Amino acid sequence: xxxxxxxxxxxxxxxxxxPTPSKHIASGTYNDLxxxxxxxxxxxxxxxxPGAEICDAQKDFSRATQAGEISQNHRYVFxxxxxxxxxxxxxxxxxxxxxxxxxxxxxxxxxxxxE
Length: 115
Description:
By secondary structure, the protein is α+β, with helices and mostly antiparallel strands. The chain has 2 helices and 4 strands; from the N terminus they run E-E-H-E-E-H. The chain has a 4-stranded antiparallel beta sheet with strand order 1-2-4-3. The radius of gyration is 14 Å and the shape is elongated. The chain starts with a strand and ends in a 7-residue tail after the last helix.
């Protein structure tokens, strides 16, 4: 698990890499997660720096424009969730957070994980 912030400190991306015992189990997990929706994972909060303040008691990141992506390769399942640190909720924000979520899931796999 980990978090990343874009160079402009606008978008926070939470990343999960889940190893499973086999490719078959990974495929089943991937299919179950896709049918459940990709944005139900919550947020990983950085301890400090950009994005850390969104997890305090006064902030509600669930209302921000979000995008999530799930991918599977070999026995690994990858998941990302991205949203604006400012907790913006606008149609224009969807393009940016979707791009961030897609880019993150491509970057973390599958080339970094083998069978």
